[in-house]
């Protein structure tokens, strides 16, 4: 029998093309122009708003919006209103173009944002080439602060070494590294590779044994093949170097299989742990910032964010929020928007209230923010005051009597030559 | 032994993909619509599970999610897609592509971008140990649901007068019309069944991945690959391709983990070189 054209008339070639269309869908970003005036301080915000980092990007977007709103309510910067231009960075192939667009078409005074280390490297290079200051708020890769560092980029986000040392030192003291066997699952892109490298270095230096390091594509929906391999390997710890929504997916599926091996990892994003649910998480982790931190400025930020968005902020919202606040404070202090003068000021050791017990400052030779991180413990369900209350802060790292650089990579570990 | 375990696990994982791909396939078979919004309906199923399971229980989500999503499908098919059938087929591609974006942003606006936690129901928690092999009860329940869906669909399409009309419509829509049978309500119902299957897949996935607005994007491409692999419009082709995809991903994860997600695309290329209509695709004049 012949088939009718009227019900479709679609060629096989067209059908196959549509699959390509689906794959290419992610390459389309959605620019969000918030407001624009010529006599304002213009901020270019760039971050992934879709894909496996989309959840974190959304928090960053909210954080930067709140910061701008607060600054404008207080009279702006240098007496000028602040305008925000926001772009979905999409991925590493698109992010540098979006950054260039913000700089050249929107004439922004500085860039802020990004989460993917793959994209962040491109944004950094663009910022450096166009001599525009870039406040990097979400990329963890040490390489961005080391071999790829540049004069125009400052890092609010902590590097992989900082995450690794924060939890690693604690676990080492608890006897959970020396002689222990680790099975690593690693996100197969720049961030994951870098984190696996620094985690392996730290753990093996402390006497740990890396049994395997599985590279896993981002956005993997099914972890069961890897969980079965973990079962067969019989490690002491499963060590995850996964990012974004992949953390959530793995934790939920790991719980499903009921394996007895403890889970630790090189990074932890609170939003992804909220997504996994309290039943799927356990143990001790590292946190860059947590809304349960009890300082006046941290409490004020949490209250303002919760009032505006009806949920508390997490570490990515903190990063983008505090990045804007740092730049605003620096511009007021320097009384200029000139990038070179601002760089000199930020390199001078100027201190900022970063909503943590100790103030932060940028390290001159690699522009990494010297700051505390925190070891947190997953609460028992019965102890939670609400669904967001999943962690108890165990200790700050570095502690009160330690130098802030104690968890930073040394020059031997991650040399930056800005030239 | 690990290889055997991965193959068996792949069969279970394949069931998960098959459920989604079947809906995509039957919508294409009759209406000629490549539903790029299929992942969005799947996400809607997961969100409805979160809403329904709390007050009514997880089992109720199985009834409510496909029913609500099916009704949404009927509304969309009747109001929009029906107008596009006689026109350039590219329009249905563009429409469903746009629909997917609208759904994703709507879910983001309503529920937020953050992943919503949803745990495996207590009665499906636990693992089955057979010899040295490990299976989760939840994955086994997905397999059972998929087998039920496949059986139900087969009976519907092969043992009912509705199914007879659908199969006739797939073969020759004009002839069905010439016999005085209106194809329009059939198209609506088939679209509803297809997206309803996506919703059931969403119900099952709510516990396995985070429930977030973009969750459909992660899996709809794999479903599309399964349809092409199995042969566009081939019911059993899709079932076999779904299982094959699960097994190939599992075995690749065992030996070359970084290539696991990409392995299904390599398989698709390989199959299309030797079988341009897919493994079990038949010669459809309208596709040639």
Structure commentary:
Chain A folds into two domains: 205 residues, 3-Layer(aba) Sandwich (Rossmann fold); 162 residues, Response regulator (Rossmann fold, 3-Layer(aba) Sandwich). In chain A, 38% of the residues lie in helices and 17% in strands. With 288 residues, chain B is mainly alpha-helical. Chain B is 72% helix and 3% strand. Chain B has a two-stranded antiparallel ribbon. At the A-B interface, α1, α2, β8, α7 and α8 of A face α1, α4, α6, α7 and α9 of B.
SSE layout and pairing:
The complex is a heterodimer of chains A (419) and B (288).
Chain A: H1 12-24, E1 32-33, E2 41-47, H2 54-73, E3 82-88, H3 95-104, E4 110-113, H4 117-129, E5 133-136, E6 153-155, H5 160-173, E7 181-187, H6 190-205, E8 209-216, H7 224-233, E9 237-241, H8 245-257, E10 262-265, H9 270-276, E11 284-287, H10 296-309, H11 315-334, H12 339-346, E12 361-362, E13 369-370, E14 373-378, E15 391-397
Parallel strand pairs in A: 2-3, 2-4, 4-5, 5-6, 7-8, 7-9, 9-10
Antiparallel strand pairs in A: 1-3, 11-14, 12-13, 14-15
Helix pairs in contact in A: 2-11, 3-4, 5-6, 8-9, 11-12
Chain B: H1 2-31, H2 38-56, H3 58-84, H4 90-111, E1 127-130, E2 133-136, H5 137-158, H6 161-171, H7 173-178, H8 184-205, H9 217-230, H10 235-255, H11 263-274
Antiparallel strand pairs in B: 1-2
Helix pairs in contact in B: 1-5, 1-8, 1-9, 1-10, 2-3, 2-4, 2-8, 3-8, 5-6, 9-10, 9-11
């Amino acid at each position: 029998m012949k088939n009718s054209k009227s019900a479709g008339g679609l060629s096989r070639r067209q059908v196959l093309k549509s699959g390509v269309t689906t794959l290419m869908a992610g390459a389309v970003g959605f620019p969000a122009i918030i407001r624009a005036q010529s006599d304002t301080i213009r901020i270019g915000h760039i971050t992934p708003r879709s894909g496996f980092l989309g959840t974190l990007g959304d928090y960053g977007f909210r954080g930067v919006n709140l910061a701008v709103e607060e600054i404008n309510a207080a009279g702006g910067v240098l007496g000028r209103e602040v305008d925000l231009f926001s772009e979905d960075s999409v991925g590493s192939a698109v992010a540098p173009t979006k950054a260039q667009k913000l700089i050249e078409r929107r004439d922004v005074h500085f860039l802020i944002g990004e989460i993917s280390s793959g994209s962040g490297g491109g944004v950094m290079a663009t910022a450096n080439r166009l001599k525009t200051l870039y406040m990097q708020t979400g990329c963890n890769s040490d390489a961005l602060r080391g071999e790829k560092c540049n004069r125009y980029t400052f890092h609010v986000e902590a590097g992989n070494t900082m995450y690794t040392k924060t939890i690693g030192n604690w676990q080492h003291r608890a006897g959970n590294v020396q002689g222990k066997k680790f099975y690593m699952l690693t996100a197969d892109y720049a961030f994951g590779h870098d984190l696996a490298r620094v985690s392996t270095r730290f753990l093996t230096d402390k006497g740990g044994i890396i049994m395997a390091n599985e590279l896993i594509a981002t956005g993997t929906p099914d972890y069961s093949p890897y969980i079965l391999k973990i079962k067969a390997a019989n490690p002491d710890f499963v060590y995850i170097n996964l990012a974004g929504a992949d953390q959530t997916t793995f934790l939920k599926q790991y719980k499903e299989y009921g394996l007895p091996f403890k889970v630790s990892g090189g990074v932890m994003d609170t939003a992804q742990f909220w997504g996994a649910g309290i039943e799927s998480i356990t143990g001790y982790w590292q946190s860059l910032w947590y809304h349960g931190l009890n300082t006046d400025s941290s409490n004020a930020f949490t209250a303002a964010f919760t009032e505006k968005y009806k949920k508390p902020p997490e570490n990515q919202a903190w990063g983008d929020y505090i990045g804007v606040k740092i730049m605003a404070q620096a511009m007021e202090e320097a009384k200029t928007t000139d990038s070179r003068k601002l760089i000199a000021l930020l390199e001078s050791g100027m201190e900022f209230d970063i909503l943590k017990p100790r103030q932060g400052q940028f390290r001159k030779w690699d522009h990494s923010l010297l700051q505390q991180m925190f070891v947190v413990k997953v609460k028992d369900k019965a102890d939670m005051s609400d669904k967001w209350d999943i962690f108890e802060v165990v200790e700050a790292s570095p502690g009160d009597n330690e130098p802030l650089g104690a968890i930073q990579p040394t020059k031997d570990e991650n040399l930056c030559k800005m030239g | 032994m690990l290889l055997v375990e991965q193959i068996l696990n792949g069969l279970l994982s394949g069931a998960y993909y098959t459920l989604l791909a079947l809906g995509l396939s039957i919508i294409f078979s009759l209406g000629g619509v490549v539903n790029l919004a299929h992942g969005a309906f799947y996400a809607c199923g997961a969100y409805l599970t979160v809403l329904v399971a709390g007050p009514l229980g997880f089992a109720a989500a199985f009834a409510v999610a496909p029913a609500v999503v099916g009704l949404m499908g009927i509304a969309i098919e009747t109001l929009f897609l029906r107008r596009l059938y006689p026109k350039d087929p590219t329009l249905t591609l563009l429409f469903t592509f746009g629909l997917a974006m609208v759904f994703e942003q709507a879910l983001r606006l309503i529920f937020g971008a953050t992943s919503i936690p949803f745990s495996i129901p207590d009665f499906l928690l636990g693992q089955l140990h057979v010899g040295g092999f490990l299976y989760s009860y939840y994955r086994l329940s997905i397999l059972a649901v998929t087998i039920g869906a496949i059986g139900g669909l087969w009976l519907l399409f092969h043992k009912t007068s509705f199914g007879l009309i659908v199969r006739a419509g797939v073969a020759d829509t004009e002839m069905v019309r010439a016999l005085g049978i209106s194809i329009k309500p059939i198209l609506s119902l088939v679209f509803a069944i297809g997206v309803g299957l996506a919703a059931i897949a969403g119900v099952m996935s709510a516990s396995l991945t985070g429930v977030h607005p973009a969750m459909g994007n992660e899996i709809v491409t794999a479903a599309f690959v399964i349809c092409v692999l199995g042969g566009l419009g081939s019911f059993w082709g899709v079932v076999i391709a779904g299982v094959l995809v699960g097994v190939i991903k599992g075995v690749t994860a065992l030996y070359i983990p970084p290539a696991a997600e990409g392995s299904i695309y390599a398989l698709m290329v390989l199959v299309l070189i030797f079988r341009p209509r897919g493994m079990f695709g038949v010669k459809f004049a309208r596709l040639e």
